[in-house]
Every structure is written in structure tokens, then in C-alpha cells.
Amino acid sequence: MNWNQWMLASGETDGVNAQVTFDSSDETRPLWPTSFEFLKAGTPLPEVTTDFLGLTRDQSAPTIGAYESLTSGISQAEDAARFDGDHTVTATDLLTVEADNADLRIYTISGVMLMQTRVNGPTAIPVGNLPRGLCVMTLGDKAARLLLR
């Protein structure tokens, strides 16, 4: 049965037919898509709130498959408020942020969530126990690169 026959026989109206290649070189992310280009067409399901790694699913356009793509958060970095000129925040032991009742999340660049906390007002968050290196930080609907030293 080809794709068109499937769509006709199943009554499917929102299906996507695309070849996806995978990279399994990192054992912590088996079958990681090499591109999320065709995978941002998922349908939100109230009972599926996180992906395989525990990352929060996008509420309006989740990624198809086991993993939620972080590319939308990373691409928002240029819009991040209160961050330095190249939108990279540097922290050693404490990360100081300010927001009105927003979630702060820190992810590795491979997409593993390292921490999540709620921020209301100026807040100093201990990050000394997190692995050193480049991360992605989201604060509410803003995002930026975070360099932990």
C-alpha cells in the first residue's frame, strides 16, 4: 500500500510522509533524528506531556516521535531579554535571573533537561552542581545560551 492509498483507506487527514534518518552514536539518545525539519507536525495529546528524555512537549506543535525538538527554543535566543549582546549568559555557582512567575529550564545542548524551577522576581539559582559547558536556558518564552564555568 502506498501513502495515497493509506490516506484514502484510513481516513487520515493530517498525516506526514517523510523519510527520517537517525543518528544513534550517542547511547543516551538512541534513534535521534538527524533533522527535525519534517517532525514539527505532531498533534498535541493531553496525556503526552513529556518526551523520552523528560522534556516538556510543545503544547501547540509537538515533534512527531520520541524526542521533542529544542530548535524552536534555541532560535528564540536572539529575542531573549536581559541577556548580554551575543545572548550568552555566563554563570559559575549562581545564576541570577528575574521574571514574573515563569519557569526556568536548563538543558544540555543535546536536549537533556538538567533542571527546572519557578522564578518570581529577582532570583539567584544555584548552578554549581550542574555539568560545566554550554547549555540552553529558557525563562518563560525567552531563551539564551548558558555557559556554565
Q: Catalogue the unreliable spans.
A: 71-85
Mean pLDDT metric: 78
Q: Biggest β-sheet, characterized?
A: 5 strands, mixed
> Numbering strands along the chain, what is their spatial order in the largest sheet?
3-7-6-4-5
User: What is the H/E order?
Assistant: HEEHEEEEE
| Rg on CA atoms, Å | 18 Å
Helix coverage percent of residues? Answer: under 10%
Structure overview:
With 149 residues, this protein is mostly beta strands. The protein has helices at 3-10, 71-75, and strands at 22-23, 32-33, 88-91, 94-108, 113-126, 133-139, 142-148. Strand 4 and strand 5 form a beta hairpin. The radius of gyration is 18 Å and the shape is elongated.
Question: What's this model, at a glance?
Answer:
With about 150 residues, this protein is mainly β.
What would the keywords be for this entry?
149 residues; mainly beta; 2 helices; 7 strands
Write the layout of secondary structure elements.
Elements: H1 3-10, E1 22-23, E2 32-33, H2 71-75, E3 88-91, E4 94-108, E5 113-126, E6 133-139, E7 142-148
Parallel strand pairs: 3-7
Antiparallel strand pairs: 1-2, 4-5, 4-6, 6-7
